[in-house]
Amino acid sequence: MNEEPIWPETPRSIVLERLKEYAPRLSKTCRREGSHAFDWPDSHLLGRVSQCVAILVGHERKIEHWRRSGWENINILDKRLRSLRLVQRINGLVKRAIEKREQLCGESVLEKAARNPDSVETQMLLRDLLQQKGKLASAVKDQESRLWHRWQSLPLFWWVCEMEHPDAEQLALSHIESPAEAQPIDYSHGRGAIKRWNARKRQQRFRQRKKISAGKALRLAARSQ
User: Fold this and answer.
1) Closest by alpha carbon to 188, among 24, 6, 59, 21?
2) Is the dihedral of CA 142, 144, 146, 148 positive or negative?
3) Which of 44, 47, 70, 200 is most deeply buried (CB count within 10 A of its CB)?
4) For 110-118, which contacts have Cβ atoms below 8 Å and span 24 or more sequence positions?
């Protein structure tokens, strides 16, 4: 998707319009539409939502927003822009993901067998794989499907963990991952750019104060003469 990137310097109205476009798309993901595959949100959408939230909260509040969790910033913005229903949409997205992720991405029978090679269940599985025609092919197909869905759902899992959503633990797959292992979303130009922008603004204010002070000093010197 080619679109104009947004930066901390981007006017608030443009960032808000972009967030109004992204927010409804969150409600359309983690669903199965007809014969189409289950639709996991991609890192581009999730990263842009977080970026818009950070910029908008940064515009409205002087407190350094990166010191708060992403979920706190989303709640702050949700109270100001209730029409977006950000908290409701994200909670709904996480709920749908929790309901489906274990089913679509959880441990396969082959992974369970590899984790417990000496168990009775593993021995029974090996017997069935040898005796039942097509059993092995079915198990391999199931494994491939779970790996594909697991890969597609990772950006959402990382995003939910990074923002410190209260239900992040429930989204983790048993015996496979934990929130502590989640990787940060690559926003391309996210928090680092925002911090640099704020630093530039502080330097501009400092230079402006120096100019004002120098001007006052020159005026006082002129009066004393």
Assistant:
1) 6
2) negative
3) 70
4) 110/139, 110/140, 110/142, 110/143, 111/143, 111/175, 111/176, 115/175
Can you tell me the distance from the alpha carbon of 38 to that of 146, in angstroms, rounded to the nearest whole number? Answer: 12
Closest CA relative to residue 89, chosen from 44, 25, 159: 25
Q: What's the CA gap between 178 and 93, in Å, rounded?
A: 19
Q: Are 174 and 35 in contact (CB under 8 A)?
A: no
Q: Is 31 helix (H, G, I), strand (E, B) or coil?
A: strand
Q: What is the token pair recorded at 194?
A: 């925002």
Residue-level pLDDT at 198: 54
Of the listed ranges 61-65, 86-90, 147-151, the one predicted with least confidence? 61-65
CA distances from 170 to 52, 75, 94, 148, 166 (A): 26, 20, 9, 20, 9
The per-residue pLDDT for 188 is 45
pLDDT in tens, 185-195: 654 444 454 45
Average pLDDT over residues 40-53: 92
Task: Dig out the tokens for 80 from the structure.
Answer: 């100001």
Query: What is the residue extent of each domain of the chain?
Result: 12-103+149-189, 190-225
**pTM of the prediction?**
0.75
Long-range contacts of 192-199 (CB under 8 A, 24+ apart): 193/7, 193/8, 194/8, 194/54, 194/55, 194/58, 194/66, 195/66, 197/7, 197/8, 197/9, 198/8, 198/58, 198/64
